[in-house]
């Protein structure tokens, strides 16, 4: 078990069947470079099954997130159409290993973006912004991983829900974000927790995709990363996120 293609097969199968796997860091630690190669190979398998790339997600862009999982590198992963869930809809616990939900801000791209860009250039490439909930689901036992493990596992991508798109003119630098479970406050934060400004996450996204030989395309969705720690999901919950000025996004959890 050392070939990157073989490891890609293992993480892809774990994600496809929602099953737990041991950490590679125990026996065969992956460098960051190897881990991104594994991620790319595992995504090729998904695309081969007919899934379509719809954008990317940034990971570990806030201190709260870094502290919660003990990894302090910003990472990224690919989003596909199969991960999108309807706003106000239902997700099933059966599709996940041990899912958690986190409050995010999403960008919709209007123009391609890649490489070293300024915040202004990044802003100029944005069509709209929205409140978003990401459901992350590490395939590793006990939701524990090192940086190589998590990158190989597509940065724990599993599902996401988008709220209404709002004007790109909306000032998103410091918006209150309230993540509630069954109407009770779970996590409270600010969009400023995302690298000081969510736009910085988009700047990092442009740089990171370019280093993989890709770019952000017009129409792509970019999740900027969780602003607070993530909350474990359980059947029966009603999950909602209210973002100041951007509005609400919600879903329910069923068994
Ligand atoms: C890694 C994915 C992190 C975020 O928004 O920070 C992430 C994890 O926490 O499992 O999606
Ligand atoms: Mg996230």
Which terms would index this structure?
255 residues; Fumarylacetoacetate hydrolase, domain 2; 7 helices; 14 strands; globular; binds 2-oxoadipic acid; binds magnesium ion
Task: Provide a quick synopsis of the model.
The protein has 255 residues and is α+β, with helices and mostly antiparallel strands.
Overall radius of gyration: 17 Å
CATH architecture: Alpha-Beta Complex
CATH homologous superfamily placement: Fumarylacetoacetase-like, C-terminal domain
Helix share of residues? 25-40%
Bound ions, cofactors and other small molecules, one mention each: 2-oxoadipic acid, magnesium ion
Topology-level CATH name: Fumarylacetoacetate hydrolase, domain 2
Total number of distinct structural domains: 1
Order of helices and strands: HHHEHEEEEHEHEEEEHEEEE
Describe this structure in words.
- The chain has 255 residues and is of the alpha+beta class.
- It has a single domain (4-254), classed as Fumarylacetoacetate hydrolase, domain 2.
- It has seven helices and 14 strands.
- Strands 1, 2, 3, 5, 6, 7, 8, 11 and 12 form a nine-stranded mixed β-sheet that branches. It has a five-stranded mixed β-sheet with strand order 4-14-13-9-10, with no helix packed on it.
- It is globular and about 50 Å long.
- Bound molecules: 2-oxoadipic acid and magnesium ion.
- 2-oxoadipic acid (OOG) binds at residues 57, 59-61, 65, 69, 102, 134, 136, 138, 150, 155-156, 225-226.
